[in-house]
Design goal:
The structure is a single chain. By secondary structure, the protein is of the alpha+beta class. 53% of the residues lie in helices and 19% in strands. It is built from ten helices and twelve strands. The strands form three sheets. It has a five-stranded antiparallel β-sheet, sandwiched between helices. Strands 7-9-10-12-11 form a five-stranded mixed β-sheet. The protein has a two-stranded antiparallel ribbon with strand order 6-8. A hairpin with a 4-residue loop joins strand 4 and strand 5 (131-137). It is elongated and about 135 Å long. Residues 53-68 have low confidence and may be disordered.
Length: 403
């Protein structure tokens, strides 16, 4: 899929480049040709309105300096006699050729035009007394246009190759987030399938044993209890997956309002105090009063519960867990720290990924490695930041929120 996406991106870019090149070079060719033609016609008009010269074939002394292209003029008298004069670029002694040129011009109704078979541009001038036709050689114009086309083709080809290489690099760069998301999605599906496979296997095994009549009623009651408890854990997993899906698609329907974060954290601590006591842990709180943020009260409370639950599961026994909230310049900083297995730099990054566990042996069967991922999604929706640090034997999770 990613290769097809990159190919489509390159094709779109190169199609746009092709259209732009054709438009730009076509416009340059058109304007250049028009300018050369206009300049040539202007010089021919200058010759047409110049007083008749003698029949010499050399350039007259009074010829204007702006006449640069090879040209000559044919004057036609009332009796049809032809008189040609101009530069020595042309052989004006061939009366038959001159007559063919005049006849070819007379066959056209246009005042000016080109005789392709002779590579000449003509301009008619009829002042009543004498009819004159000015001719100018256009072979140099053709050579100039051909050179321009050749140079444009070379420049265009080089630019096309360079832009093609750049488009390949851009395609890889642009699709990199898509590739990352695609790989994460595949990993997410694989992990979710693995996590669901275990409880489903337990449920199916206990259900099959319930059908075996060799087991007593007490055994069957135990099987039923196992099925019920496993179903509850699987329901928790499914609800967590749905929560992540809603957060990923911005359909969590968060209701932002002014929230007293200090009061919210104090209330969230209360149900965890007996749990920490039963686990032999000490929960110490240092909450600064009257810190208010704008957010969803329920979701922010969920983040605090996730961090405390994480500390409860992974902190070393007989240690102290500290939760603090401090006001800073333009934000507030929530931290939850406790002693535990040191987190490596890789762990501190991956710990917020879905289904990631630093110590899988500490899993109690009710945690699926989704809590911190949900917390990160919630904090991101609140324009905040969540991260982990590990030093001096303490693992600390920080949450920064704008006040």
């Amino acid at each position: 899929m990613l290769k097809r996406l990159r190919l489509k991106f390159v094709l779109v870019i190169m199609s746009i480049v092709t259209v732009l090149f054709i438009a730009i070079f076509g416009l340059v060719m058109h304007l250049t040709k028009r300018n050369i033609e206009r300049e040539s016609v202007q010089m021919m008009r200058t010759m047409a309105f110049r007083p008749p010269a003698s029949s010499t074939m050399h350039k007259p002394d009074n010829m204007p300096d702006n006449i640069r292209l090879p040209f000559f003029t044919i004057n036609i008298s009332d009796n049809g006699e032809l008189t040609a004069f101009g530069g020595d670029y042309f052989d004006l002694t061939d009366k038959e050729l001159l007559r063919k040129l005049v006849n070819a011009v007379d066959a056209s109704s246009k005042e000016t035009g080109i005789l392709p078979e002779y590579d000449l541009r003509y301009l008619k001038n009829d002042n009543g007394r004498m009819k004159a036709i000015v001719f100018a050689d256009v072979s140099s114009e053709k050579a100039m246009i051909s050179g321009l086309i050749r140079n444009s083709a070379i420049i265009g080809l080089i630019a096309y190759i360079i832009l093609f290489a750049i488009s390949l690099i851009l395609a890889k760069w642009v699709t990199k987030p898509v590739e990352k998301t695609w790989n994460e999605q595949k990993q997410f599906i694989a992990d979710a399938s693995h996590e669901l496979k275990t409880p489903l296997t337990v449920i199916m095994t206990n259900a099959e044993m319930m059908t075996d009549k060799s087991y007593t009623e007490n055994d069957r009651a135990g099987f039923t209890k196992n099925i019920l408890s496993t179903s509850k854990r699987m329901r928790g997993l499914v609800e967590s997956l749905l929560e992540l899906a809603r957060l990923d698609n911005n359909r969590s329907l968060m209701q932002f309002d002014s929230v007293d974060l200090s009061k919210l954290i104090n209330n969230s601590i209360l149900p965890f105090e007996p749990l920490f006591f039963e686990s032999g842990l000490v929960l110490a709180a240092d909450i600064e009063d009257n810190i208010t943020v704008r957010g969803d009260k329920e979701k922010l409370g969920q983040v605090v519960s996730i961090l405390l639950d994480n500390a409860l599961k992974y902190c070393e026994p007989a240690e102290k867990v500290c939760i603090s909230l401090k006001h800073q310049t333009s934000n507030c900083l929530l931290s939850v720290s406790g002693a535990g297995a040191p987190l490596t730099k890789e762990d501190r990054i991956n710990i917020f990924k879905r289904f990631y566990r630093v110590d899988k042996s500490r899993n109690d069967g009710q945690s699926y490695g989704l809590g911190l991922s949900i917390a990160m999604s919630i904090i991101n929706e609140h324009n905040g930041r969540i991260w982990a640090e590990s030093e001096n034997g303490l693992n600390t999770f920080f949450v920064s929120l704008p006040v």
